[in-house]
Amino acid sequence: MMLRRITPADVAGLDREPVDPAAREVAREILHEVRGGGETALRAWSEKLGDLEPGARLFWSRADLERARDALDVRTRALLERTAARIESFARAQREALADVDLAIPGCVASHRFVPLASAGCYAPGGRHPLPSSVLMTALTAKVAGVERVWVASPKPAPATLAAAAIAGADGLLAAGGAQAIAALASGAGPLPACEAIVGPGNRFVTAAKELVSSRVAIDMLAGPSELVVVADGGADPACVAADLIAQAEHDEDALPILIALPGCDLGAVNDELERQLDGLSTAATACAAIGSGFCVAAADLEEAIDLCERLAPEHLQLCVGEAEAVASRLRRYGSLFVGELAAEVLGDYGAGPNHVLPTGGSARHQAGLSVSTFLRARTQLRISDPKAAQVLVDDAASLARVEGLEGHARAAELRHGGGRRASSFAG
Ligand SMILES: NC(=O)c1ccc[n+]([C@@H]2O[C@H](COP(=O)([O-])OP(=O)(O)OC[C@H]3O[C@@H](n4cnc5c(N)ncnc54)[C@H](O)[C@@H]3O)[C@@H](O)[C@H]2O)c1
Ligand SMILES: N[C@H](CO)Cc1c[nH]c[nH+]1
Ligand SMILES: [Zn+2]
Asked: Does 215 share its domain with 253?
């Protein structure tokens, strides 16, 4: 297995269409049916797609999830709890960094308050591999943001997925996947409330359905298959470089592993390592398919490597170079950056702290990954603290209203002259 080699001039952006048109049509039909047919249609589609045995449980309550957590083997439960604690600490630090604002301007206080959404639906993929780590990343972050009702959706949930939902503090779990799960999260079904936001990664049917409901509910992003760019110099360990590329390649045949090789990077050794490490790997078939559509590119120097990274704007960017900090300070476009060979991307996948739900397909140019901000809205407020000092605002509003020909606005402003009828309540 060898990485295909291309020249720097052939490197375009990663701009992949986030939604597959064929999947969109399938998702449209499913959304329409589940929106109209509720729980019955949701169950029918889940059974038809092989996600649910006839008559099997579709909804898990908080108490059910806690029982699943308690039934999990002690070591896996402790592992999930430790991981959750790290993700939660990072999310709490993010939340605390978002300060409310109260700006005093003459006669006025202009404010914003971060207010959480009331409900969130967190999709965790379950088609190929159960991803309890994605349950923690999404549901825990929503809870830290202050979202009151958090539901997880995942097809054929594994015991660890159910336990992760309990550990994240989820209020319930929908044992369904694909577009039908997104439809139910958007419209509500049985005990599941219609959610104000739907987040989390998924396959093309999930992504298509998220796009289709995005006019009615907030979504985090249209996340596609995993991507990793590794920048490696002559000091990089070929075994680490190959292992990092394989790790993301094993997610999906459409995953995209890319190597940017600086002078001195031994491409032959990396290819040998790919061959060696793929031999006997349980996920080799998927990883090989992804590596087959990945590539490597030789950069003449650090400048060119940085330029390529900025052009690609990948989901994950791994720096296996001696001057990792200096390079990091020059980069702006990535979902998550892993600075130095020791900071392996997989440590981010499994909850070192930063979230692993990240923008793909070049959208990291303008989009950030999932965070507490995904579930918060800066709502603004205005207070008049001193009507006399605020006269300039009243006069300016009335004047500007007349410039715009909006006489009603002008009069509404002028009625506040001197504090309006309640002027006495401002006395002193
Ligand atoms: N960007 C990120 O942050 C991130 C993180 C983790 C995983 N991922 C990606 O998430 C994806 C997970 O995909 P997955 O398939 O394992 O799980 P999934 O849960 O997203 O999708 C499985 C569901 O798809 C539906 N489905 C399957 N075939 C269908 C069909 N023909 N018609 C209609 N619906 C169908 C089924 O209902 C099934 O439950 C991968 O692409 C992976 O790379 C991305
Ligand atoms: N690499 C994925 C994000 O693209 C996240 C993940 C979950 N489990 C393992 N990895
Ligand atoms: Zn991963």
From this structure: no
